[in-house]
Amino acid sequence: MTSASTSPHASDIVVTGLGATTPLGGDVASTWEAMLAGRTGVRSIDDDQHEWVRRHDLPVRIASPLAVSPTEVLPRVQARRLDRCEQVALVAAKEAWEHAGLGEPGSVVEPERLAVVMGTGIGGAVTLLDQDDLLEGPGLRKVSPLTVPMLMPNGPAAWVGIEYRAMGGVHAPVSACASGAEACITGITVAGFVQARTLSQRNDDPERASRPFDVQRDGFVLGEGAGVIVLERAEHAAARGAQVHGRLAGYGITSDAYHITGPDPSGNGQIRAVRKAVADAGLAPTDVDHVNCHATSTVAGDVGEAKAVQVALGDHPVLTAPKSALGHMVGAAGAVESIITLLSIRDGIIPATLNLDELDPGVELDVVAGEPRKADIAAAVCNSFGFGGHNVAVAFTKI
Amino acid sequence: MADNAEILSGLAEIVEEVAGIDTAEVSAEKSFVDDLDIDSLSMVEIAVQAEDKFGVKIPDDQLAELKTVGDAVDYIAKNQ
Q1: Superfamily of domain covering A14-226
Q2: From CA B74, how far away is CA B64, in angstroms rounded?
Q3: Is CATH 3.30.300.30 the classification given to domain A253-397?
Q4: Count of alpha carbons within 13 angstroms of residue A44, beta-carbon side
Q5: N or C, where is chain B less crowded by C-beta within 10 Å?
Q6: In chain A, whose CA is at the least distance from the CA of B48?
Q7: Interchain pair B48, A77: CB under 8 A
Q8: Looking at domain B4-79, does it have CATH number 1.10.1200.10?
Q9: pLDDT tens digits along A141-195
């Protein structure tokens, strides 16, 4: 059993490295700085690079694309063998690996004790479309021999494992928005989310389109990115003199068994996920000071989440919704927002939920808006929910 | 019809594009696998690009026989 703000026990799992590439910045520091400054990654995509928006007359012409293209960072030959979701996975993994001080792969961590867990919500959708165009057009011989490794959902985990010599297993738990790497801003995914009536159509005011918990919210904004966290036992981190940035104290996973896209209005699955995470961490609900919400800016989702948090934890937690700035990075959201949660604990500051002009009256908790708020956070929960009725809550505590 | 020197230099450009190996490294005696560290997936890409560039057909059973850059140059020279 652990409790908030105590020294780590040898068997605790601690965080020793963070890496990300997001719509706000090409690394963790620039993302965090932009988030605290109240900037957004949401912008118009009615441009030549996204010509499909106009070609299909899509009613959504906004998104939150990456601030730094992975092709600017990766060596050219490596990039051309990878789907974009695999490219961003490697960019984030490199930063996390270096941040953790792990040196030459194989030198600090025994490869057989190193595993990679990284999923994606959509995966290599762009590759699938591009290669199908080649098959239908010039024909078989133009189809890349790398097609399958580029579109397979375990591709990001596999490439990261190869790069860093992980021989303890590479897993790709696909749990919609709670996964790791995503880069799927393309015609068919936007069209699919449009037809599911989930995306904001505030095309004339992109910066104000993602507005979780606000009465004027009208859907989420599709983003892309990747987040990677290096986890190890506290004793292992201590033995190698690694800097520790927080503790992964517990987690809760549940499913709704209710609807393929909509949240269960009773909030039962979300409540259970948060409670399980808190119990797994050895915490009491009153110990959790802050919740980094999944809140995507959809009409159905945000209020339900706030109510679920209130039932699970009480009236005291302070909430924020990072998707107001990042958009919804789908498979990357859970990992990147876990990083934001850890930074909030480490630096004692909660970024503001952007565009929260008028709190939905259904929300009875304190949501940080306007300016970031200083707060001494001993324990926080990061929520991620996904299509399919997946609910994941992760509890992080201060070291 | 390209001569052997032109084929070598054209092939080297393809290898550079696909596998990132400097064109100066791509000489006739080099083995694709053992010296240039080119994997089977990249060999397929190189073969398709070479077919387009030199107007030849390189069937899979022939591709497997092209161990060195020089083997590929000779095959292309004979079959273009």
Answers
A1: Thiolase/Chalcone synthase (3.40.47.10)
A2: 14
A3: no
A4: 8
A5: N
A6: A141
A7: no
A8: yes
A9: 999 999 999 999 999 999 999 999 999 999 888 765 556 788 888 888 888 898 8
